[in-house]
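Input structure tokens:
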């Protein structure tokens, strides 16, 4: 079974092109209560440097969220932790990160919350978690 897979996928792989762009770009996304058994959400992220991905991850969140904003907010938080770690590694390898890392998120409510993190009645429970 494994050999058949390897034979059929020998031409598949990640492709990295020579590129002067050594800056990180990240994408974060999640579903809201996507698991039909326990209603927990799944979060994921991917980071690109140049033309190809260098880090990615996906995991089921350990709590049941009240809203899609809450799920996306936690997802972005996990992705930002990964971005900080990646930036430190790249700096250690002599690849300076002179620009801020750009993060793409597809939830307008999260963007508003991140840019204006004041007390919000509908999101105050997020800080407790």
């Amino acid at each position: 079974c494994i050999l058949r897979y390897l034979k059929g996928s020998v031409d598949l792989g990640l492709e990295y092109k020579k590129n002067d762009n050594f800056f990180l770009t990240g994408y974060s996304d999640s579903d809201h209560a996507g698991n039909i058994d326990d209603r927990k959400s799944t979060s994921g992220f991917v980071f690109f440097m140049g033309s190809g991905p260098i880090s990615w991850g996906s995991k089921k969140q350990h709590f049941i969220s009240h809203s899609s904003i809450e799920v996306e907010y936690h997802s972005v938080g996990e992705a930002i932790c990964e971005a900080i770690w990646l930036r430190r590694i790249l700096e250690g390898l002599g690849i300076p990160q002179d620009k801020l890392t750009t993060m793409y998120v597809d939830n307008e409510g999260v963007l508003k919350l991140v840019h204006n993190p004041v007390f919000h009645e509908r999101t105050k429970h997020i800080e407790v978690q």
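Residues 19-115 form one domain. The longest strand covers residues 52-60.
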